[in-house]
Amino acid sequence: MKQPVIVLVRPQLGENIGKAARAMLNFGLTEMRLVSPRDGWPNPSAGPAAAGADDVLEKAEVFETLAEAVHDCANVYATTVRKRGVTKPVVTPEEAAREVYAATGRSAYVFGPERSGLETDDVALARAILTVPINPEFASLNLAQAVILCAYEWSKGAALAQPTVEELLPPAPQDELEGMIQQFEKVLEPTKYFYPESRSAATRRTLRNMLTKPGWNSLEVRTMRGVLSALGGNRRPRNSEE
Question: Which CATH class for the 5-160 domain?
Answer without folding.
Answer: alpha beta
